[in-house]
Amino acid sequence: MKKFFTKMILLFFVSMLTVGALGAMPDKDYLCFTAEKLGATVMLKKGGTPSDVILEYSTDGSNWLNFFANSTTVILANVGDKVYLRNKNEAKDVTTFSQSDADNYRFLFTSSVSVSGNIMSLIDKNVESTTIPCDYCFCNLFGGSLTLTSAADLKLPATTLAKECYSCMFIDCTALTAAPAILPATTLAKECYSSMFAFCTALETAPKLKAETLAESCYQQMFQGCKKLKSVKVGFTKWGDLSDSGATDYRATYLWLNDAGKEATNPTFECPADLDTETRDDSHVPAGWTTIRIGILTLDDNNPYNVTIDIEDIKLKYKRAFTETGKYEALYLPFSVTMTEDLLDKVTIAKIYMVSTKGSVAGGSQDAGVNVVVVKTLGEGESTMPHTPYFIRSEAGTDLEFTQEGTTLYASTTAYPGHIDCSTTMDTYDFIGTYEGKSLTPEAGKSIYVLQGGALHKVTSETDLHCNRWQMVKT
Questions:
Q1: pLDDT of residue 279
Q2: What is the pTM of this model?
């Protein structure tokens, strides 16, 4: 669980430096504080016994003076005055900043300021590094700063994070209305963003969270108490495990949106199309939030499809590798396919119409004793039904790939009908589809067939049935 801190007012100052109107702009994107009101002050508080850091400050980005923790205070005399900060050393010579929950550095302000620029200037005077040098780096950095108003233009460019490196970074910043636009890290670490914006009660815009894979407690309580939060955008496609303490993503989003968005109008949760948002609680998507799905969901015949909810109005790509050109194969999809002129040039899709004791099998020869399957090919403008067995064959001699806009992808668990029953006077034929693939073996009292090389073949030994295929069972 995360830590909560008592707000403190520092009452001693060793040096006071007043900044007047500013001139030239710096040549690098240093961390910058801008006064939103007259007479704002900036100071760095040293808590506990972290290793010493050597910082410098400048009002123009060219002339630099030492900036000592617990002693140097910069006064921003006018609205719009700025102060830039950087480490005195290059990244190769910097191995630490804050070191633990108790041993860390934290900025204090006495009046309204905004923060912008690249956070990495605190550990690299050249502002080139994208590597976090230590665990707990920048934890609590602005925590409890009641007059920090905006971090919309703050950059946190590291793509690989260390343990708790940004934890509690803005906790209790009750005046903060805008966070950094994006958190670009794709490789997370344990508790790296935990409680980062907890109890930022004025925060309206959350950063876009780019990571596709979660780490243990990485977003735990991240936006807890952010009552005005309007939107959250994520890149991950699978939730963390709240039940298995041994999981690498254990408690990843535990209470991360607890009380979030309570005072916002129609808050939204934007996520990849294949993220399961059926569970509604403060550790997933809160009740009352609107879900917006983004990106292209790709289905192919090598990866199982097991989404348990319907996903509406998405852009979907389907890929199919054919074994033989001009030979029918089994097709079973969780969405509807409309036959366009372009698609008809590539493939023929045929509906299973009936089983007959006369005629010829679609696409090939028939095993002895098996009745034939009569099919009807679909024409331009006609559509398939989801969760329904069909025949498909390649007409262009190439593998298939097509994209559909505004498609509904139906839950894999929906029976829509999920199979087709066909009967003759003597036998019943059941066409049963699968999205996860399976291994078929002969069963007593049944004859199981799979479509291979354009013909139905009886399963006489263990046979693999791939994803998005069907089997025919004769009883």
A1: 93
A2: 0.73
